[in-house]
Structure formats: C-alpha cells, structure tokens
C-alpha cells in the first residue's frame, strides 16, 4: 500500500504514525539537537545566566584536552577487557548449563541474579568486598597468606576491581544469550558427533561454537558499547581514582557537567563521543555478516 | 471500511485523550500538603545524623508555630546540584536547603538562596537572632559579598585527635625517648606529628600501650577518597607549610609547584606511609570508624566527625581515650593553620514560605534550640558563644567545649576556601596529583609540576592570566 492508494485512510495513517514520530523527535532528536547546540556555547550553569555562543572554542579545547584522551584510552581498555572476561565466563557458564546439570533452572536463576541488580548496588557490594579493613577479600588473602593487595588503592588493582565487578554483573547476560543459542542446536547433532567418536572439546569447537558465533558477536557488541559508557560503579567504587587511573570517559563527562558545571564543554565531549560511537556502530553493523562468515570458517 | 476506521480511530483517540488527562490529573504538580492551620516546609539536605536531628527538633519546636518540616535527603555532594538545577528550572518545592561554605559563592552567583541578611534587615528580626552571638571564627565561610547566606548551625574546625592513653603510657614514652631523643607528647609541629605517626605504626601482635595489637596498628588515620576528602585533609598541611591555596589571590598566579607546596606534598606523601591502608577509598566517616576501632594513634579531621564516632559507646572502642587539640604548626607565622568549614540551612529563593522558614530557623538555632539539637546530636559543634559558655553544656559536653575553647583561645591561623568560580576544577587537579603521588605513580615534584601546568591552562582559559 502506497501513500496514493491510502486515500481517505491517510488521516488514520498519520494518526497512527504520530506517537512514534513525536516520541522520536521529542525524546531522542530534540535532546540530541539541544546538546549539539549547547556544545557550541560557553555555559557554566552556576555563573552564567544563559548559554552564549563561543563558536568552535569547545571543539578546539577538546583537541588539546589530555585528560579526555586519557579517559578515552582507559574506557577502551576497560571495555575490551571487561567484555572479553564476560564472554569467556559467559561461554563457560552457558556450556555448563547446556550440559543439563541437576537443578539447572535453580542454578541458572541464582547465576542471573547480579544482572538484575542496580549497578550502584553492585558497586557498593564490591566496594565493601574489597575494603581493606572490613572486606572479606583482603581477609581471605590474609588468611591464605596471599599477597597484600590494595584492591582499590593502586591504579592497576583498582581497574581490575572495576573489571571484576563488571564481569560479575554482566557475565550472566552473556551466559543467558549464549545458552539460548546453544539450546537451539538440535540434540541429534550432539548424538551424531558422539557416535562418530568426537571428544567434548571437538564437540564444542566443531559443532557448538560455529553455531553460536552470531550470538557471541551480538553479545560482544552489546557489552562493548555498554561497558564503554560505564559510570555508576566507577562513581561508587573508585570515584575515578586513585589519581585519574579509573576516570573513564563517562566519569569525565559527569565531572565536567556536575562538578565543574561546564555544561557547554560537557555537551561538546558528548557530541564528539556520539559521533565516534556512531562510526564504530556503523562499522560493526556493516561488517557483522562478514565477521560471522569469517568466524564460521 | 474507511467510515468504521475513522469511527474506531475517533473512539481510540477519545480514550487516549481521556487517559492522558487522568494521568496528568492524578500526578499533577507536586504540591506540599497543607493540613488546616499547619504550614509544611520542605528541607533539602544530606542524610547526616545532625540534619536528621535538626528535622526532629524543628518539628518539635515548630508545632506551636503551626509549622512542620518534611525532609528530602540526598547524598551530600548532590544537594547543591539538586538545588541549583531545581532553581534554574523554576521548581518551587523547597523552603530550606542545606549549604556548605565552599558552595556559598556559587549559591550567591546563581541566586539559589535569599540571603539571611535580607531577613535580618526586617524589623525585629535582628533581636530575634542575635547575630553578635555567633562565633566569628566559624561563620565567615557562610558570608559572601557582605551577606550571610546560610544560618550558622554546625561548625567543623579541623583538630588533631590523639590517643591520650597511648601518649601517656610510660613504656611508650621510654621507647619513644630512646628512638627520637625527645619526649613523647602531643605533637605541636608537623615534624613531631610524623615522628609520632611513625613510632606508633605497628604490626598485628606487637605491643601497643602494653597490649598485643589484635590487628595492624597505624600512626595516623586520614581520609583519602577522591572527590574532596583527600584535598580537604591535604590543604591543612598545605597552608601550614606556608603555601597558597592553589593560587596567589593577589596576582591570580597558580602556585601549585611553589617551594612551599612541594614541601607540603613531600611531607604528606611521607605521612601516608603511616596511614591506614585503603585510605584512598575512605571518606571522613569511614576513617573515623577505623580510628574508633582502636587502630590508629592520631587523626586529623573535623571535630564533629571525630566526636560523632570516637565518643559514641556503641561505635567506638576508645571512648574517653581521645584528646583534642589544634592542628600542629609548621611555619611560625601561621600557628595551627587550618582551612575552616561551616554548615547551615539557607532559605531557597523560590520558597513560598520564606518568612516562616526564617522564623523557624531563628527559633531552632537560638541558644535554647541549639541545646535541644545537641541532645539529639551530641557531636554538634555549635556556632553560638552563648551555647559554648553555658554551664550545662560545659558539664555535659566537656570534650567539645575543650576543643572549641582551644579554637577560640588558641586563635589558629584560619582561612576559608577562596570564592573562585573554577575552584572545584582547580581543587580536583591538585587532588588528582596528590592521589597519584600517594599511589606511587608520580613523585610529588612531577605530580605538582603537571598540576601547575593544568591550573595555569585553566586560569588562562578563564581569563585570569595571560
């Protein structure tokens, strides 16, 4: 059906489309456009009565902002390692659940619990677990005569702590997606492979893995983009420290907007980040099929 | 077909519009409930014990004034943000809003509050409040451009808390004398503070005051969390060593890597060796929990922070064992130097009940009201001389009175954070540099050189320097 053939139904068509259009414009497009406009202004919400245009000054500032490039570097490191850990743990857990262990549903339910917790709660929980004076993890290391690790006190361990907490929260999502993909593989294929004398590793690498590669790429893509923008746990667990060693890009933007109240500059960073992510996402979508084919071969 | 479509569409549209109207009506603008004859004031503040006590006393004292107070608690650092954003959006929900002295320039610039001075200038209000009764050393931080922006409630002078029992222990004294060649006593200089902190840093099982330590014992407990906690402790040392607070206020030149600043940074890094581990994640309250768990010999913190934990029997193993004195001295021209804190509620500029809010504050924060407040929150450090000098207060709160008298009579060199628009950014730059130093990422000199370059860039961008 085309616009021309709709005839008197055009009004109804417009009415039906209106909520979606209003939603996209009001909820998505307008704030994005407002942010882009703000990015061209000098606006300190405390001291400036209103935003005033400063042309491309904020964009020029970005080019020389060492703290921002450092935050971007840290975000990439965090996102890549956290996603890799989550996929590895998720894959292992999915394979375990796919082997139909006794009490599978109960175990699966328990395993998925962290995923439904608010990130700020996850941050608080891990903050307490790593606490040097009352935390069980340092205590365990002490009892087992392990090294004296200052979990959130040094740059490397603080980043590791964040990655561990993120993996704890989101590995269940990867597991859930991969488990559902594994469940779609016909059992006959397992039985046939077994009958042909395939080992467990051969069964996994030759039968299961090629058929869940699509989901692996999807889970990886989803987690990578989400982890790149991590904020809540950073605020709760490290505040971006020690120094700026865990100041991821979201934390950097948050500080610009809500500690320095530089809404203009924060909007510029958001705009640039939006463009960068859009490019990466477009690349991901474009090459998704090719990645799949490559993985399968 | 098209007729039935349009009929259906019309019916659906009607239902949708009706549902929307119902939802809007049921949610509506949030209005303060007002029972007959009772005015409800709203309070926006942090969920700290003292402000919960304030609400309790305000509701008790407000009853016969026909006023009740409903609190909305947020994390401390979010209170200003919330008030600011609400004020910019024209939200009229609030009447009373908590303020901290470093926020005052921002509050004044963005006109979030109506100055208390404006109310004091109305007939009869000055005699009601008696502003001359406020202790001047504590209230300056709430003043800006000649106006008082929040009602002085809780002072937070920084003091040195020390384990009086350990410092008086004969065996410890003997061992200290043998090691340092002078007598163990309450530290009067930062050199002595470092020695005492080093001396009392012990391993689990070592003797501390004649008893085997159940856990590792540390020389000094200091908060080191990013977000202001670390900087706030470090700035005490910074000013004591004769350095500027980040920049020279006369020339606007940043001085983060001045000789004095580097000396202070080196000292703080050295002191850090004798601090509780994990201090990077400890706020003031968290640090005082460690001190109160009998795990440190010394602490430097806001007086009420220490009192609210160390002197509370169900929280502390060291009740009655702590002495309080002024911070040590490094440079003679700045005796017991410290950067002061002050807290109090202000009156939200868009409040619909400004006069009633002022009347309530005047009553709750009067001499009698403050005494009631102290019953609910015994760690409160009052900002009224009449309260400190009250015989009953002297009897019931000897530790607080002792410390406040030390502040009043000792005349410490006191400074408040400068009213600089970019203060938060500048502070964060230096705090990050200090944090990088404490975690061994950079030397104090390198960290402060980098911080200096960043503050210079910040000041250039702001147009203060070329």
Automatic annotation (TrEMBL), chain A:
Pfam families cross-referenced by the UniProt entry: BPD_transp_1 (PF00528)
Annotated InterPro entries: MetI-like, MetI-like_sf
Q: Name one GO cellular component term.
A: plasma membrane
Superkingdom of the source species = Bacteria
User: Could you tell me which residue ranges the ABC transmembrane type-1 domain spans?
Assistant: 72-282
Spans through the membrane: 12-30, 76-97, 106-129, 149-182, 203-222, 263-284
BP terms from Gene Ontology: transmembrane transport
Name the membrane topology term: Multi-pass membrane protein
Q: Where does the UniProt annotation locate this protein?
A: Cell membrane
Q: Which UniProt keywords are given for this protein, alphabetically ordered?
A: Cell membrane, Membrane, Transmembrane, Transmembrane helix, Transport
Q: Which family does it belong to?
A: Belongs to the binding-protein-dependent transport system permease family.
* PANTHER family (alphabetical): BLR7065 PROTEIN, SPERMIDINE_PUTRESCINE TRANSPORT SYSTEM PERMEASE PROTEIN
Which protein, by its recorded name, is this?
Sugar ABC transporter permease
């Amino acid at each position: 059906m085309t616009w021309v053939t709709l005839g008197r139904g055009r009004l109804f068509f417009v009415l039906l489309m209106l909520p979606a259009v209003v939603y996209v414009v009001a909820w998505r497009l307008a704030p994005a456009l407002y942010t882009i406009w703000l990015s061209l202004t000098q606006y300190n919400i405390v001291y400036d009565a209103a935003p005033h245009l400063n042309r491309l000054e904020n964009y020029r500032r970005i080019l020389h902002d060492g703290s921002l490039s450092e935050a971007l570097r840290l975000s990439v490191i965090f996102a890549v390692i956290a996603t890799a850990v989550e996929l590895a743990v998720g894959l292992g857990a999915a394979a375990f659940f796919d082997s139909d262990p006794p009490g599978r549903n109960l175990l699966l339910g328990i395993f998925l619990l962290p995923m439904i917790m608010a990130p700020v709660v996850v941050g608080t929980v891990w903050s307490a677990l790593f606490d040097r004076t009352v935390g069980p993890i340092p205590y365990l290391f002490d009892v087992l005569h392990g090294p004296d690790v200052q979990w959130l006190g040094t740059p490397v361990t603080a980043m590791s702590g964040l990655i561990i907490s993120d993996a704890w929260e989101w590995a269940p999502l990867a597991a859930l997606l991969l488990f559902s993909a594994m469940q779609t593989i016909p059992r006959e294929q397992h039985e046939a492979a077994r009958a042909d004398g395939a080992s467990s590793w051969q069964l996994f690498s030759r039968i299961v893995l090629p058929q869940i590669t699509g989901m692996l790429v999807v889970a990886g893509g989803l987690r990578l983009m989400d982890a790149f923008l991590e904020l809540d746990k950073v605020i709760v667990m490290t505040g971006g420290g020690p120094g700026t060693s865990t100041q991821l890009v979201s934390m950097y933007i948050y500080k610009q907007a809500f500690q320095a109240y530089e809404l203009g500059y924060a909007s510029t960073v958001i705009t640039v980040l939006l463009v960068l992510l859009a490019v990466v996402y477009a690349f991901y979508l474009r090459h998704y099929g090719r990645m799949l084919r490559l993985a399968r071969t | 077909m098209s007729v039935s479509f349009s009929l259906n569409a019309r019916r659906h549209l009607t239902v949708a519009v009706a549902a929307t109207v119902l939802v809007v009506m049921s949610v509506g603008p949030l209005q303060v409930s007002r029972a007959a004859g009772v005015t409800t004031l709203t309070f926006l503040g942090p969920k700290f014990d003292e402000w919960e006590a304030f609400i309790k006393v305000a509701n008790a004292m407000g009853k016969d004034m026909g006023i009740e107070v409903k609190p909305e608690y947020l994390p401390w650092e979010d209170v200003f943000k919330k008030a600011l954003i609400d004020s910019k959006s024209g939200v009229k929900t609030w009447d009373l809003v908590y303020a901290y002295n470093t926020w005052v320039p921002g509050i004044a610039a963005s006109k979030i509050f109506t100055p208390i001075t404006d109310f004091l200038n109305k007939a009869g209000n000055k005699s009601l409040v008696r502003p001359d009764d406020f202790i001047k050393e504590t209230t300056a931080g709430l003043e800006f451009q000649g106006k008082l922006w929040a009602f002085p409630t809780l002072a937070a002078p920084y003091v040195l808390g020390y384990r009086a029992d350990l410092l008086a222990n004969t065996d410890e004294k003997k061992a200290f004398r043998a090691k340092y060649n002078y007598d163990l006593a309450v530290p009067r200089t930062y050199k002595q503070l470092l020695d005492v902190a080093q001396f009392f840093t012990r391993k689990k099982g070592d003797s501390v005051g004649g008893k085997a330590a159940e856990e590792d014992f540390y020389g000094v407990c200091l908060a080191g969390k990013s977000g202001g906690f670390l900087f706030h402790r470090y700035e005490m040392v910074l000013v004591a060593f004769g350095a500027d607070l980040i920049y020279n206020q006369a020339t606007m030149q940043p001085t983060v890597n001045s000789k004095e600043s580097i000396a202070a940074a080196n000292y703080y890094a050295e002191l850090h060796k004798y601090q509780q581990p994990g201090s990077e994640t400890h706020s003031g309250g968290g640090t005082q929990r460690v001190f109160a768990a009998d795990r440190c010999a010394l602490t430097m913190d806001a007086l009420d922070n220490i009192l609210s934990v160390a002197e509370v029997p169900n929280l502390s193993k060291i009740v009655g064992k702590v002495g309080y004195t002024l911070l040590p001295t490094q440079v003679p021209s700045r005796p017991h130097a410290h950067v002061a804190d002050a807290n109090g509620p202000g009156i939200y500029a868009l409040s619909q009940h400004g006069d009633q809010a002022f009347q309530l504050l005047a009553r709750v924060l009067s001499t009698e009201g403050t005494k009631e407040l102290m019953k609910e929150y015994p760690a409160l450090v009052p900002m009224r001389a009449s309260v400190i000098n009250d015989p009953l207060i002297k009897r019931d709160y000897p530790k607080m009175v002792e410390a406040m008298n030390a502040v009043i009579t000792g005349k410490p060199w006191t400074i408040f954070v400068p009213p600089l628009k970019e203060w938060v950014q500048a502070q964060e730059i230096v705090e990050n540099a200090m944090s990088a130093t404490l975690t061994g990422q950079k030397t104090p000199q390198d960290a402060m050189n980098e911080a200096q370059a960043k503050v210079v860039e910040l000041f250039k961008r702001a147009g203060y320097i070329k």
